[in-house]
């Protein structure tokens, strides 16, 4: 009976407020309409009648000529009740109701984005990763002018993370391109203050990380993406960006593991101009002296000397295996095999610098490989255009000289001929000069 009495009193109070709301809405009184709708929701909340709360939200939003400000106030008010719901089912129901009300309404797009993010989080906690990813992808926050920059970035990063969790790497890459890495390097202190008449940007919620923290999250997600493709150079560049964050650079316990990763992935990356540039740049870093083993390893790679794989692996095997306990985890299953391949490639490049022609047998001895393996790795480097070489298989000779085309030969011959004629002309000039000097001396002698 007491419960029934409460329901009757609640319905009577709601009906009374609905009449007030109707009068104020038709009169166009924004403040009074907002007050009426929020009081209706407050009554339902205080009575813990969650079913009535959902019904009233739907009904009030569908009223003819309902004011935008009233709908916004109603959604914002109801969002405060989400954390105070008695169970998960009620929470999901309330979020879905608010999503329905805010769908297609630009004036509550930020609230809708936050609601979808919360619903996606609940789905993820339930183990429904695919559902959570599909749900959060529906929102294009990059078009929201009133949303704070950090909140936009955090939302897109959440989309990328869920795509990576469901192993949808194509969509993860597409979403990640919505964020320009340059946005993290903007000095927030120099940002222009909004002028009068500009759209007002809302303050981000308290749980949104700072721009530098978002930078770290972004590059950690990109490392996960590139790790899937074993793109070692891009992984290295991501770690380099993390390494340059001031908070990381100030703490040795944070930058040492990151610098180790930079060194490893530089070595694992195939030889190319970008890799070579990063290698020399890293060697100039003063912090590298804190990890001397890695400094020595990088120096070996820039020195044009053959590296013995067995001795190098024995020296660095413990460091390699210890990476799994460091920040970022292990280097991957293929890493040890790829490391050996990079050392072989380095040795082939060294040999090509010192030899114009060499037998395949001698090349295999220098590389500590079989003849078949030496030929295989050399062929792969030629195909990838990292090296120019020709193999005479019947003779067993490798030629590293670049074959010149007819135009180059002709230009070279023309240049040599020009130099020869120039020398002849200079010689004739010197002979003529000497003849004149001697003639002058003879004349003086006879006088």
Structure description:
With 447 residues, the chain is mainly alpha-helical. Helix content is 68%, strand content 2%. The protein is built from 20 helices and 3 strands. The chain has helices spanning 2-27, 30-46, 50-61, 68-79, 88-102, 109-125, 129-137, 149-165, 169-176, 211-229, 232-243, 246-249, 252-268, 273-283, 292-302, 309-322, 335-354, 360-367, 371-383, 406-446, and strands spanning 357-359, 390-392, 397-399. A 3-stranded antiparallel sheet has the order 1-3-2. A hairpin with a 4-residue loop joins strand 2 and strand 3. It is elongated and about 140 Å long.
* Terminal-residue CA separation: 153 Å
Widest sheet: strand order? 1-3-2
SS elements, strand count:
3
Unreliable sequence segments: 1-5
Classify the beta-strand content into a percent band: under 5%
Outline: elongated
Q: Return the string of H and E elements.
A: HHHHHHHHHHHHHHHHHEHHEEH
Percent of residues in helices: 55-70%
- Average pLDDT level: 81
């Amino acid at each position: 009976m007491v419960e029934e009495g409460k329901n009757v009193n609640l319905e009577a109070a709601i009906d009374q407020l609905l009449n007030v709301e109707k009068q104020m809405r038709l009169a166009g009184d924004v403040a009074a309409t907002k007050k009426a709708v929020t009081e209706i929701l407050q009554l339902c909340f205080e009575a813990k009648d969650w079913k009535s709360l959902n019904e009233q939200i739907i009904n009030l939003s569908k009223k003819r000529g309902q004011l935008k400000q009233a709908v916004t106030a109603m959604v914002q008010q109801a969002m405060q009740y989400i954390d105070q719901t008695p169970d998960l089912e009620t929470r999901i129901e309330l979020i879905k109701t608010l999503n329905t009300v805010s769908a297609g309404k630009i004036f509550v797009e930020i609230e809708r984005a936050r609601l979808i993010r919360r619903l996606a989080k609940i789905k993820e906690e339930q183990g429904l990763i695919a559902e959570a990813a599909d749900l959060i992808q529906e929102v294009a926050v990059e078009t929201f002018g009133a949303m704070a920059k950090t909140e936009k970035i955090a939302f897109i990063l959440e989309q990328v993370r869920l795509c990576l969790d469901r192993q949808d790497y194509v969509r993860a890459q597409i979403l990640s391109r919505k964020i320009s890495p340059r946005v993290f390097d903007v000095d927030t202190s120099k940002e222009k203050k909004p002028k009068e008449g500009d759209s007002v940007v809302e303050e981000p919620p308290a749980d949104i990380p700072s721009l530098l923290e978002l930078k770290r999250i972004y590059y950690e997600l990109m490392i996960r993406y590139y790790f899937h493709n074993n793109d070692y150079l891009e992984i290295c560049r991501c770690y380099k960006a993390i390494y340059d964050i001031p908070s990381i650079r100030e703490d040795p316990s944070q930058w040492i593991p990151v610098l180790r990763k930079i060194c490893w992935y530089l070595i694992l990356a195939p030889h190319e101009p970008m890799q070579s540039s990063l290698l020399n740049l890293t060697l100039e870093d003063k912090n590298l002296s804190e990890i001397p083993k890695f400094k020595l390893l990088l120096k070996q790679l820039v020195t044009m000397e053959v590296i013995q794989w067995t001795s190098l692996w024995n020296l660095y095997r413990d460091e390699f295996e210890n990476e799994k306990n460091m920040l970022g985890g292990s280097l991957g299953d293929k890493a040890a095999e790829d490391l050996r391949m990079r050392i072989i490639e380095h040795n082939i490049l060294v040999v090509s610098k010192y030899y114009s022609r060499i037998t395949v047998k001698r090349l295999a001895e220098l590389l500590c490989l079989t003849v078949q393996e030496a030929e295989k790795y050399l062929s792969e480097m030629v195909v990838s255009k990292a090296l120019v070489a020709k193999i005479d298989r019947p003779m067993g000779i490798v030629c590293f000289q670049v074959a010149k085309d007819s135009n180059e030969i002709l230009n070279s011959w023309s240049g040599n001929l020009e130099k020869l004629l120039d020398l002849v002309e200079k010689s004739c000039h010197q002979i003529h000069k000497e003849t004149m000097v001697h003639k002058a001396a003879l004349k003086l002698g006879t006088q």
